[in-house]
UniProtKB/TrEMBL annotation, chain A:
Gene3D superfamilies named among the record's database cross-references: MetI-like
Name the UniProt record assigns to this protein: ABC-type spermidine/putrescine transport system permease subunit I
Organism: Hoeflea halophila
The family this protein is said to belong to: Belongs to the binding-protein-dependent transport system permease family. CysTW subfamily.
PANTHER family per the UniProt record, alphabetical: ABC TRANSPORTER PERMEASE PROTEIN, INNER MEMBRANE ABC TRANSPORTER PERMEASE PROTEIN YDCU-RELATED-RELATED
From TrEMBL, chain B:
One Gene Ontology term, aspect cellular component: ATP-binding cassette (ABC) transporter complex
GO annotation, biological process: quaternary ammonium group transport
Start and end residues of each ABC transporter domain: 4-234
Protein name: Putative spermidine/putrescine transport system ATP-binding protein
GO molecular function: ATP binding; ATP hydrolysis activity; transmembrane transporter activity
Organism for this UniProt entry: Hoeflea halophila
Keywords: ATP-binding, Nucleotide-binding, Transport
Membrane-spanning intervals of the chain: none
Lineage start: Bacteria, Pseudomonadati, Pseudomonadota, Alphaproteobacteria, Hyphomicrobiales
Pfam families listed in its UniProt record: ABC_tran (PF00005), TOBE_2 (PF08402)
């Protein structure tokens, strides 16, 4: 074997463990799910193998699924927007702090040391009927009866923002931190106020980080299923909850497969559209 | 009227004083260089003039108007950075037009001014490109165009040539001076490179450790250094311990072991006023090596031994010993350099020497 041939082979040798893991753990199960989605659940118990379009017809035509899908996308969009609005100033502050940037970043990562489920459940202790906020307001005499604040769409969004904000801050921070501060000085020397300089220079240059953070928040919140279970009411189910219902409660694997593929396809299309306009390269930068 | 006046400027960062009691007058239309090693306070001074830093004490005036409380965006200054600081997301034309957006300039006028500025820096066809598509030298020209298109009261240049490679740096030096002269803008240039300072400036301000060591025209600073620091920082100098044995009207006499008596014109030693210990300053390129025993004409001759030779092609740097003293000489090479170990006669002229009184340094 010539040196060229050996060198051409080397990347593939290095990649093979990762490729094997992706094929075994992602591609193969996905193929199973695709195949499953065309089977039929039979009342007898064992599913009927074959090529039936019944599940797909139900998933694509039943307005119940459509409404929940749209609601899921709406909640994801609101969550992303709130994360962006809250995350940008925080990221800006960290990027521009003269002192301990690393310390601030560690503080940002600190919540990840506690399980996501426990962090989400902590809101019950804060907003619940006998939670901290109600108790404090009763003690202060602002209200006489505890207010029902939990188990609605707002608390679902609250929980999602709580979970996803660090991802947004981190992505924007990476973008902002890479911007030469001389650029802002140059802008102000040319006559721009600090705010004008920010709008003209810093904001546009940090857009890739904002876009990457936005994509991450959107995809993660659109696929969430724990947050609505813990903080949502009976009518606040998101799309992933339907998949759970179908597979675990109704044991309808074929329908659950079709529904999960539908969500995958919708998010996939959105990511492709997004990528076309904003570029994915920053995502890797933001995660690294 | 002075374009820029600094009046007893002090800048402290916590306990550290970066600039001590600095006063300065910069004439309208002149090219003034702040020269010194890194950490001497030159960039801090520039940033205070720009309005990027507030002085801890003292006053800064631009065109006679106090600007201490005027924010940077209202000072009308052109600022050029070492790393160019072009806006990477804007085209060259948009970069140059940036400052015009904040001045009452019509779209048409703006287009014309941008074209003129690009012509001036000799890059008229690059308006549609993005900065990353340009070379370092081109980027620096665009940064210059962006700074001068707004017709600033003062152009501030913060080591603008340092990021360029050597050949390009020399071209840009000539170019920068040409542009400055053609528009006649008052320019403050910060550099650590003495060659740049000597080549470009009307006036050089040599700084060290936050203090002004000397202010003067390039030739003045080079020929008559006001301190040992200046003598050593500008060019290769020999600083020798000597004693002044006599001061008469226009001349002073200096003696040191191994050398004949040297009579220096008073204007080369303006601060030596009485006999006593002095520092004799001789530029390395003013010591001319000749074969041993060459009879000196009007020049003074000193016997020396070559200890080491640093061959540089067209010239050579010689490390010499005269008695107990070590000297450096830089000579053009005629034929072959003198080899290490050879005995030579070193010729020097009294009028090429300068002297400083030896003071108790704090």
């Amino acid at each position: 074997m010539s040196i060229e041939q050996r060198e051409a082979r080397q990347p593939w040798i290095l990649l093979s463990p990762a490729l094997a893991a992706i094929v075994m753990l992602l591609i193969v199960p996905l193929v199973f799910i695709v195949v499953y989605s065309f089977w039929l659940k039979s009342a007898a118990g064992a599913d009927t193998p074959g090529f039936f379009l019944d599940n797909w017809q139900e998933a694509l035509t039943d307005p119940f699924y459509r409404d929940i899908l749209l609601n899921t996308l709406k909640i994801a969009a609101i969550t992303t927007l709130v994360c962006a609005l809250l995350g940008y100033p925080a990221a800006f502050f960290i990027a521009r702090s003269q002192g301990n940037k690393v310390g601030l970043l560690v503080l940002l990562m600190l919540p990840f040391w506690i399980s996501y489920i426990i962090r989400t459940m902590s809101w019950i202790n804060i907003l619940g009927v006998s939670g901290a906020l109600n108790s404090a307001m009763i003690w202060l005499g602002i209200i006489n009866e505890p207010i029902q604040m939990l188990y609605n769409e707002t608390t679902v969004i609250l929980g999602l923002v709580h979970f996803l904000l660090p991802f947004m801050v981190l992505n924007i921070f990476v973008s902002l931190d890479g911007i030469d501060t001389n650029l802002e000085d140059a802008a102000s020397s040319l006559g721009a106020t600090r705010w004008q300089g920010f709008l003209q220079v810093t904001l546009p240059l940090s857009l890739p980080g904002l876009a990457a953070g936005g994509l991450l928040c959107f995809v993660l919140s659109a696929g969430t299923y724990i947050t609505p279970v813990i903080l949502g009411g009976p009518r606040d189910a998101m799309f992933a909850n339907l998949v759970y219902e179908a597979i675990i409660r109704q044991l309808n694997w074929p329908l659950g497969s079709a529904l999960s593929l539908l969500l995958l396809a919708v998010l996939g299309v959105l990511v492709i559209i997004y990528n076309r306009y904003l570029g994915m390269a920053q995502l890797a930068k933001g995660l690294g | 009227m002075s374009a820029v006046t600094l009046n007893n400027i002090v800048k402290r960062f916590g306990d550290y004083t970066a600039v001590h009691q600095m006063s300065l007058d910069i004439e309208e239309g002149s090219f003034v260089t702040l020269l010194g090693p890194s950490g001497c306070g030159k960039t801090t001074t520039l940033r205070m003039i720009a309005g990027l830093l507030d002085p801890s004490e003292g006053e800064i005036a631009i065109k006679g108007k106090r600007v201490n409380d005027v924010p940077i965006h209202k000072r009308n200054l052109g600022l050029v950075f070492q790393n160019y600081a072009l806006f990477p997301h804007k085209t060259v034309a948009d970069n140059v037009a940036f400052g015009l957006n904040y001045r009452n300039v019509s779209k048409e006028d703006a287009r014309r001014k941008v074209a003129e500025a690009l012509d001036l820096v000799q890059l008229p066809d690059l308006g549609g490109r993005y900065p990353k598509e340009l070379s370092g030298g081109q980027q620096q020209r665009i940064a210059l165009a962006r700074a001068i298109v707004i017709e600033p009261d003062v152009l501030l240049l913060d080591e603008p040539l340092s990021a360029l490679d050597a050949n390009l740096r020399e071209d840009m030096r000539v170019e920068l001076k040409r542009i400055q002269q053609s528009i006649g803008v008052t320019t403050v240039f910060v550099t650590h490179d003495q060659t740049e300072a000597l080549a470009m400036s009307d006036k050089i301000i040599v700084m060290s450790e936050g203090r002004v060591e000397q202010i003067g025209a390039p030739e003045e600073v080079y020929n008559t250094p006001a301190s040992e620091f200046v003598a050593q920082f500008l060019g290769a100098s020999n600083l020798l311990s000597a004693s002044c044995t006599g001061v008469s009207g226009g001349e002073i006499a200096v003696e040191l072991p191994g050398f004949p008596r040297i009579v220096i014109p008073k204007q080369r030693a303006p601060t030596v006023s009485a006999p006593g210990p002095v520092r004799l300053i001789i530029r390395a390129e003013r010591l001319v090596l000749k074969p041993e025993g060459t009879v000196a004409g009007e020049e003074l001759g000193v016997d020396a031994a070559v200890e080491n030779v640093d061959y540089q092609g067209q010239s050579a740097r010689y490390f010499l010993r005269v008695g107990e003293q070590q000297l450096q000489a830089i000579n053009m090479i005629d034929d072959h350099p003198f080899p290490a170990g050879s005995k030579v006669t070193v010729q020097l002229r009294a009028k090429d020497c300068a002297a400083l009184p030896v003071e108790a340094r704090t």
